[in-house]
Every structure is written in structure tokens, then in C-alpha cells.
């Protein structure tokens, strides 16, 4: 009887340990030990409007690299939209950068979503921008402070409307411009 109980305790402990460390990272966002200057880029959205990262200095920017074939990418879009709508008037912007796909394909895909995003969907067809950010898997998300520095990074799907993530974003919004 004692052996199954010990086995159960070990399994339970191994299951709970990652949850504890996951929460300690800000619900999956890792703070970079030393912030790095975000590589500048100019990309177009589905309507051909250009967005240049450096023109957004003074705002907190979430860059999310994604693709339509990526299930976690699809799952995190509603939470990105929720946090974007809640904080955009405070100086927060989301730039969702699609990898390798055409605007027509993405437009068709967006029509299938339960929540249609109002934040800009940009296109990095040749992956030059994702390469400059060291993206190795999708989705990958970066939080950039008002000074244009990458301060947080996450790889894999996230709930960006989680209170811990919202608190991190709010902290960046509350920082004084320097």
C-alpha cells in the first residue's frame, strides 16, 4: 500500500513543479537578463499600409510571430485582442507578424476565427524580420518597452490576458519615457 502512495506523490510533485516555475516566469514570459535594442523593420499589413517599428517609440509593443497552420497561434489570438483593446488607449500596440504566407490566404483564414483581430497583421514573407529576432518556433512573442528594447520573450502559445501578463504590460506602460 505504501509503494503506490509514494509513486502517486512523486507523480503529483513532478506535475506541480513545472506549474510553479511557469507562474514564476510571468505566465510564460521570460525577462531578458539584459534588454536588447529591438531590430528595426518596416512591414506591410493586409491593406498595404506600412508599419515601421522605430516610429512606435514611446509605446509598448507586443510583436507576435505566427502562421495560420500553427494551432497555438490560433488559440492565443483572442487573448491578444482582449489585452490590445483594453490597453491600446494607454500606448500599447500589438503587431502580429505572419510568416511565409500571402495576404489573401491570411485574409481567408481570419474569416474563420471566432474573434477577428483589430490589431495590425503584418507580413514577413521572406522571414528576414523573424530571423533578425532569432525566431526558431511559432508562436514567438516579444514585449518591447517604450525605449525600443526587447525586455520579455515567450515561445509557444500564451494567454496574454492573464493577470500576470497584463501586470507586466502595465508595468512597462507605467515606466517613464527616457
Automatic annotation (TrEMBL):
InterPro entries: AhpC/TSA, Thioredoxin-like_sf, Thioredoxin_CS, Thioredoxin_domain, Thioredoxin_ResA/DsbE_sf. One of its GO terms (molecular function) is antioxidant activity. Residues 32-174 form the Thioredoxin domain. Pfam families: AhpC-TSA. PROSITE patterns: THIOREDOXIN_1, THIOREDOXIN_2. This is Thiol:disulfide oxidoreductase related to ResA.
Amino acid at each position: 500500500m505504501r509503494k503506490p502512495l509514494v509513486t502517486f506523490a512523486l507523480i503529483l510533485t513532478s506535475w506541480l513543479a513545472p506549474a510553479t516555475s511557469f507562474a514564476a516566469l510571468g505566465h510564460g514570459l521570460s525577462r531578458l537578463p539584459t534588454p536588447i535594442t529591438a531590430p528595426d523593420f518596416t512591414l506591410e499589413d493586409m491593406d498595404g499600409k506600412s508599419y515601421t517599428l522605430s516610429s512606435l517609440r514611446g509605446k509598448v509593443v507586443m510583436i507576435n510571430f505566427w502562421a495560420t497552420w500553427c494551432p497555438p497561434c490560433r488559440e492565443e489570438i483572442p487573448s491578444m485582442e482582449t489585452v490590445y483593446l483594453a490597453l491600446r488607449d494607454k500606448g500599447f500596440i500589438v503587431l502580429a507578424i505572419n510568416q511565409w504566407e500571402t495576404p489573401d490566404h491570411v485574409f481567408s483564414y481570419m474569416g474563420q476565427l471566432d474573434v477577428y483581430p483589430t490589431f495590425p497583421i503584418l507580413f514577413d514573407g521572406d522571414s528576414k524580420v523573424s530571423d533578425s529576432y532569432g525566431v526558431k518556433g511559432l508562436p514567438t512573442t516579444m514585449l518591447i518597452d517604450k525605449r525600443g528594447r526587447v525586455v520579455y520573450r515567450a515561445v509557444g502559445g500564451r494567454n496574454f490576458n492573464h493577470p500576470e501578463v497584463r501586470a507586466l504590460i502595465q508595468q512597462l506602460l507605467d515606466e517613464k519615457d527616457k
